Amino acid sequence: MGRRGVRVAASDVPTSIHLRRSYLRERPAALPELSELDVVRHFTELSRRNFGVDTSFYPLGSCTMKYNPKVAERIASYPGFAHLHPLLPQLRMGGILTQGALEVLYEMERLLCEIVGMAAFTMQPLAGAHGELTGIMMMAAYHRHRRNHKTTVLIADSAHGTNPASAAIAGYTVASVPSDAQGGMDVQALKGMLNDQVAGLMLTCPNTLGLFNPNVREICDLIHSVDGLAYYDGANLNAIVGKVKPADLGFDIVHLNLHKTFATPHGSGGPGSGPVGVVEKLAEFLPVSTVIKRSDGTYALEYDRPNSIGYIAPFYGNFGIILRAYVYILMLGREGLERVAENAVLNANYVREKLKDYYHLPYPQVCKHECVFSAARQAERGVHALDIAKALIDRGFHPPTMYFPTTVKEALMIEPTETESKETLDAFIDAMIEIARLAETHPEQITAAPTTTPVGRLDETAAARNLNIASL
Amino acid sequence: MPFIANTEQQRQEMLDAIGLTAADLFSDVDASMRCGPLDMPAGMSEQAVRARLAELAGKNSINLTCFLGGGFYDHFIPAAVGALIGRSEFYTAYTPYQPEISQGTLQAIYEYQSAICRLTDMQAANASLYDGGTALYEAMMMALRVTDRNKIIIDDSVNPIYRVMIHSYTRNLKIELVETKNADGQADREAILKLLDDKTAGVIVQNPNFFGLIDDYSDLAEAAHAKGALLICSCYPTSLGILKTPGAMGADIVTGEGQSLGLPMSFGGPYLGFMATRSKYVRKMPGRIVGEATDTEGRRGFVLTLQAREQHIRRDKATSNVCTNEALCALTALVYLSLLGREGLRETAQLCADKASYAYQKLTAIKGVRPYFRAKWFFNEMVLDLPCEASGVIGRLIEKGIAAGFPLSRYYEGMDNAILIAVTEKRTKEEIGVLAEALEAVL
User: Does domain A341-447 have CATH number 3.30.750.200?
Assistant: First the structure.
């Protein structure tokens, strides 16, 4: 067809090079041949088949779908940030031309240190799971340094799947610690699992049930008693930010998901950013490079770190994401961050109390940023968590997280976040109540959902069996 | 308070409605665990924060003429890219867990996977990984799984930043990682063939390599396959506008950094790691994958597929710990490739090569400046041998407003006088002339 969306600039050099034929591709890649308007309409249409926080309420538990401030997008596009080549500070005289960017990184490290109580941070990890891997690699470096022979990492049975996966690919064996009747880590069981082989423990606090574990200090002390390290999975820091510092609880390593607590966009599934903070005794193991502030007030990168775990990312992290989080923290300030936790927790408890008569609530105590219901009662009528999720779609809401944590049958995990208003929560609560009633009276209306979407329920089993993952 | 909807009065109404007090909400957190007020400034207005960040942005130079590459390039980005990925239905969504309301993201990822396959001549691509370096590490881990072996050969003409990353990641694992030294700028066939044995899981190479030199690894693919090993090739996607594809060479896993496909350099990220493989290895591939599906009424749609490989199901037995992909960056690359299209990508790649070739002629005409290697086929990046230390020359040229290139001594011993210079389609004949004059003047 030959249609094209962009006219490539004409060549202004006199020669056109003919590379050796065996080095060339036989025919051009079969990419689209479309006008600019064709492309714009196509992707505009695709965007209309999507659902974002800007579309409507998105209470996807554990993912913290809060509002993403527009000003952060604007600032990330400033040419002084967006057009900066990452190798520039590694050149002689290049450091002075990147002082603004280095200052952002340095200031973010300091702010995050203050927020979680750690001594030092690396901004390099490119996502939460990448932060977990980085943290576990530092755990391994610590034990290697102390000539400890450790093989096992303990992880709560309610943990995100990334925890065991990260520990395993870092070379550790994973042992799962069961939960107790209150939904927290079972301290007696933990005691029974402690031995010299334990390298550390990964804990999410509040956990994936949205519950703060009152024994968290004791758990950290127990781990320290076998010279293990306590790892804080910061996925749920938004529940306690400004109120509790993980370091004060006894944690040694913490990763944060900037796209959760600090409001950077989730981008349809990334890019994220997963900075890692550590206590003083682990600071020597942080990845290269680190940003330092010199006595003359200028910033520089330091590479000479003999005990470091080495390079884990090509440069200094997902700078564009770090920048957005920095903007958010500056705008909220010290009181604002505390209000984040208070409002996130209030909104979750409001939903919990308002819905507890309609859905089974396995853990009835005060929750933190999210609450987990079970659709077990509705399941008896043939209406499952999945059906309730699809019925919410027809009512204009994004569904909660379903079937996680796996420790709760038919789980529906609701995280409203602090940016949502009472009116929005009330509308969602009304929809949930209506669905619970219909599940009793007209279950077939719920199991038939969704009916308002461009496609209905898709056959995932057939999709995996008759695999078509690219048009070749 | 910015970004918090409810007023104090509404908060009170909500508390009253559920019969709790503000204190009750944190009654599970013992007072001894609480921290005092954070030691940080009070919140700023949008106006103040924009002024502050504009000031910081102003401390970074954007007026340098950029001949810096090293795997990260200053390419032209059409305005429509930003306009489309700036649609908040894309950027404020999360992973498409609910396919009925995520067909936009899902179809876009399917199209992205298709575009990566067509670009590389492979049959299966994932939805993306963090960056080119972590993608190469994941490819190495995948080769270990596919072959159930534990030896990897990597040539030192592969991006040194990626090599140091791989060294960090494998430190705690039982992997035999052997590095070969390049032979006059290219992967040393003799050394690699000598090391290649029936314990080898994979051979890792890069095209064009870190020195910008073009290679054809068909021979290495054949040799690797003869020993039951995989060939892993990291590549520069723009170059695939004209260069022989890794698929045509017989590579088994292809990765690369997608930054050159419409993403700004943004001081190191967010970037885009792409990965593609052969159909037979798809179930061993890490990362999210989107597949075609049909709904209850037979309509075509898309879903996340082969999820049984992933951490949220397999936990410690998963193919990788990755959860997030770089969806918005993958969308960016897809929009960019759709706008450039078949001819536009070919023209862009040819333009890069033409301009680099012109720059090579101008620069090597300077007294004392010579090509560092004998191999003469390069794409858009070249290594030149200067009559003095490269890092000092680069420093002096920065003072003249030119980021002339990267000093290879930083990663290669003994290459003190070598400079790596990249030329993209954005560089003009005039800018190349200015670089040549400035270089001549400082030597």
Answer: no
Contact B49 A2 (CB under 8 A): no
Q: Which residues pair with B235 in a beta bridge?
A: B207, B256
Domain covering B65-76+342-442, topology: Aspartate Aminotransferase, domain 1 (3.90.1150)
Considering only residues 220 to 239 of chain B, which have any Cβ-Cβ distance to chain A shorter than 8 Å? Answer: none
Instruction: Give B79-335's CATH code, choosing from 3.90.550.10, 3.40.640.10, 3.40.50.300, 3.40.50.1820.
Output: 3.40.640.10
Q: What is the fold of A74-330?
A: Aspartate Aminotransferase; domain 2 (3.40.640)
Residues from chain B that touch A346, judged by Cβ atoms under 8 A, are 6, 11, 14-15, 22, 25
CA distance A434 to chain B (A): 20
For A9, name the nearest residue in chain B, comparing CA atoms only: B425
Where are the domains positioned within chain A? 74-330, 341-447
Which band of pLDDT confidence, cut at 50, 70 and 90, is reported for residue B311?
confident
Query: Would the CB atoms of B271 and A314 count as touching at under 8 Å?
Result: yes
Q: What per-residue confidence (pLDDT) applies to B316?
A: 85
B359-363 CB contacts, 8 Å cutoff, 24+ apart? B359/B67, B359/B421, B359/B423, B359/B427, B359/B432, B359/B435, B359/B436, B361/A15, B362/B432, B362/B433, B362/B435, B362/B436, B363/B421, B363/B435, B363/B436, B363/B439
ipTM: 0.97
pLDDT, tens digit, 9 for 90 and up, residues B272-289: 999 999 999 999 999 999
Q: Which of A4, A12, A13, A138 to mutate to test the interface with B (most CBs of B within 10 A)?
A: A13
A166 touches chain B (CB under 8 A): yes
If you measure CA to CA, which chain A residue comes closest to B96? A268
Token pair of A218 as six digits? 């004791």
Q: What is the pLDDT of residues A325-355, one digit of tens each?
A: 999 999 999 999 999 999 999 999 999 999 9
Q: A472 and B28 in contact by Cβ < 8 A?
A: no
Q: What per-residue confidence (pLDDT) applies to B400?
A: 96
**B402 in Cβ contact with B64 (< 8 Å):** yes
